[in-house]
Amino acid sequence: MLLFTRPLPKLKASALAFEKAGINAVGVATSDIVTVSSEQNAAASFLSSNTVNAIVVTSVYAVEAVVSGLNEASNHSAFVIAVGDATGRKLKAKLTSALAANVITPEVHTSEGILAMHQLNEANCRHVVIIKGEGGRDAIAKGLDEKGILVNSFSVYKREQLTRPVYTKRWKMGEVSGIIATSEAMALQLIEQFGNALLAFPWLTVSDRIAQTLNKKGITNVAVCQQATDQALIAWVKDNWEY
């Protein structure tokens, strides 16, 4: 059995995806997603009244602020960079057709993948807005700042740790053969919950940064899947692990 992390709003859908793929897995949510209304309104207002070169959207939970702001703007031509496919699909579905045509995703769905995009390395890229979660994706802002690009960041949602983790079904530690962690925060919360019992398992995560954090915690067997979608994780598991 595999143990995978997801925030509470995504937990059931991911569990269903693993089940349909024939993989025995239990999902655990250690945190919920809460909208920060003041930041969401500020982001929408800023985007509706300012012209920028690119907008980085780091999660499906950051989409609504972008949609509200851009759909009110009549002549916006900025690239809208979605960190992953799910975020890209949601943006395209909600934006006007003209704005949806500007939605792009990096080849590698990580902060590093975003920073490597040629659209953010052109001479005419001078102002970027980042729509993100509280405390997340600081590497993007830092990397753009080092390039001399003006950055405005809006933290439109936050993760709130649950009092008790939520699981998709009953499970026992002795049944687990591997762990999939889709965010650094949830990985650390999982380790905090179960301690050294998790250190010996093989782990799969979605960025080199998270893998390095796990290494520092004493976990030596860590692999990286460069996309965080259920489909990508399932494909990786089928190719690399017994389940």
Describe this structure as you would to a colleague.
- Helix 2 packs parallel to helix 3.
- The chain is α/β, with parallel strands linked by helices and 243 residues long.
- The longest helix has 13 residues.
- The mean pLDDT is 91.
- Helices cover 39% and strands 25% of the residues.
Q: What is the arithmetic mean of pLDDT? A: 91
Specify the biggest β-sheet.
10 strands, mixed
Report the span from N to C terminus.
6 Å
Q: Strand-and-helix sequence, N→C?
A: EHEHEHEHHEHEHEEHEHEH
Rg (C-alpha, Å): 19 Å
Strand order of the largest sheet: 5-4-3-6-7-2-1-8-9-10
Task: Annotate the secondary structure layout.
Elements: E1 2-5, H1 8-20, E2 25-35, H2 37-49, E3 54-57, H3 63-72, E4 79-82, H4 85-94, H5 97-100, E5 103-104, H6 111-115, E6 127-133, H7 138-146, E7 150-167, E8 178-181, H8 184-194, E9 203-205, H9 208-216, E10 222-224, H10 230-240
Parallel strand pairs: 1-2, 1-8, 3-4, 3-6, 4-5, 6-7, 8-9, 9-10
Antiparallel strand pairs: 2-7
Helix pairs in contact: 2-3, 3-4
Give a quick precis of the structure.
This protein is α/β, with parallel strands linked by helices and 243 residues long. It has helices at residues 8-20, 37-49, 63-72, 85-94, 97-100, 111-115, 138-146, 184-194, 208-216, 230-240; strands at 2-5, 25-35, 54-57, 79-82, 103-104, 127-133, 150-167, 178-181, 203-205, 222-224.
Which key phrases capture this entry?
243 residues, alpha/beta, 10-stranded mixed β-sheet, 10 helices, 25% strand, elongated
